[in-house]
């Protein structure tokens, strides 16, 4: 069952946010039907390699992304799917109905980057081997935010860079999506991600 899509610019923590929210007992890890308990999920998700960031992010992603299972399995599952997409990727899928019909996602979580963080995000593209067309991604981000205004949940990249702000942001999403997250385990996951991120970030 589709629950929420996270819309984020490359390098701004969208995959991390997906892992945190997928810690819910009722959420999908990688295939549409296998259920993991919260402690099992924490053990799986609490892995970040600052020397090979892309490889770490590709672990435990929904396998329809690599052709391992057809998307309709995820739509029909009793478990909830939360996934993360760059704006250009999501808009293409949404408009062309490649996997889902337009408007199928109940919620879109928009991870905003404040202007003060633009230089920081761009500087770190090479470090984490991302490619970012800032203008295009921001343009498509705005299109989606306008299109899905009535289903939007907004948080800032800044919320992922401070322990207290992160806790408040996750608490807000947890309530709105009725995920019943273990907030203390979510905070532990954040601490690992943030320490590994600091080791990789160029400031």
Notes on the protein architecture:
By secondary structure, the protein is of the alpha/beta class. It has a single domain (2-196), classed as Rossmann fold. It has 9 helices and 4 strands; from the N terminus they run E-H-H-H-H-E-H-E-H-H-E-H-H. The chain has helices spanning 14-21, 38-45, 53-58, 71-76, 87-96, 118-123, 134-147, 163-177, 183-200; strands spanning 2-7, 81-85, 107-112, 152-156. Strands 2-1-3-4 form a 4-stranded parallel sheet. It is globular, with a radius of gyration of 16 Å. The model has no long low-confidence stretch (mean pLDDT 90).
Distance from N terminus to C terminus (CA atoms, Å) equals: 39 Å
Average residue pLDDT = 90
Number of strands: 4
Structural class: alpha/beta
Shape: globular
**Annotated CATH topology:** Rossmann fold
**What is the percent of helical residues?**
40-55%
Question: Short summary of the structure?
Answer:
The chain has helices at 14-21, 38-45, 53-58, 71-76, 87-96, 118-123, 134-147, 163-177, 183-200, and strands at residues 2-7, 81-85, 107-112, 152-156.
List the helices and strands and how they pair.
Layout: E1 2-7, H1 14-21, H2 38-45, H3 53-58, H4 71-76, E2 81-85, H5 87-96, E3 107-112, H6 118-123, H7 134-147, E4 152-156, H8 163-177, H9 183-200
Parallel strand pairs: 1-2, 1-3, 3-4
Helix pairs in contact: 8-9
């Amino acid at each position: 069952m589709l629950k929420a899509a996270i819309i984020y610019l490359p390098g701004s923590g969208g995959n991390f946010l997906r892992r945190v929210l997928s810690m819910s007992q009722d959420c999908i890890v990688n295939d549409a039907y296998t259920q993991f308990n919260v402690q099992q999920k924490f053990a799986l998700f609490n892995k970040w390699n600052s020397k090979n960031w892309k490889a770490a992010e590709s672990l435990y992603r929904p396998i329809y992304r690599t052709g391992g299972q057809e998307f309709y399995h995820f739509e029909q599952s009793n478990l909830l799917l939360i996934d993360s997409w760059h704006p250009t990727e999501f808009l293409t899928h949404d408009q062309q109905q490649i996997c889902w019909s337009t408007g199928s996602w109940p919620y879109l979580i928009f991870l905003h980057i404040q202007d003060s963080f633009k230089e920081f995000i761009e500087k770190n593209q090479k470090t984490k081997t991302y490619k970012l067309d800032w203008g295009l991604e921001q343009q498509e981000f705005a299109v989606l935010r306008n299109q899905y205004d009535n289903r939007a949940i907004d948080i800032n990249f800044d919320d992922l860079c401070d322990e207290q702000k992160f806790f408040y942001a996750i608490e807000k999403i947890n309530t709105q999506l009725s995920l019943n997250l273990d907030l203390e385990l979510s905070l532990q996951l954040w601490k690992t991600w943030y320490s590994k991120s600091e080791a990789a970030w160029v400031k």
